[in-house]
Design a protein that fits this description.
By secondary structure, this protein is of the alpha+beta class. It has one domain. The protein contains two helices and four strands; from the N terminus they run H-H-E-E-E-E. It has a four-stranded mixed beta sheet with strand order 1-2-3-4. Strand 3 and strand 4 form a beta hairpin. The longest helix is centred in the first third of the chain and has 9 residues. The radius of gyration is 12 Å and the shape is globular.
Length: 77
């Protein structure tokens, strides 16, 4: 699945279109996120690479983070 396919899926859902703001390489994730709830779909590869694996990062209104990986791996890319 590529960036455009993921963005189209996120924009077609009433919840995700208001919360998930970007699909991007891991080295382009923002360092500070003030508006919450907020979600991102980073690729585990950097912007220099061809792309490896998509994961999901979600911050709740109270700032708690959630991470999802279809491989079941812990965050650490």
């Amino acid at each position: 699945m590529n960036l455009l396919q993921i963005m189209n899926i996120l924009k077609s859902d009433s919840f995700t279109k208001t919360v998930f703001t970007d699909v991007l390489p891991s080295d382009r994730l923002p360092h500070e996120i003030r508006k919450r709830p907020r979600g991102y779909i980073p690729n585990t590869d950097s912007s220099e690479g061809p792309g490896k694996h998509w994961v999901a990062v979600y911050l709740t209104e109270d700032g708690k983070g959630e991470f999802w990986d279809s491989y079941g791996k812990a965050p650490g890319f």
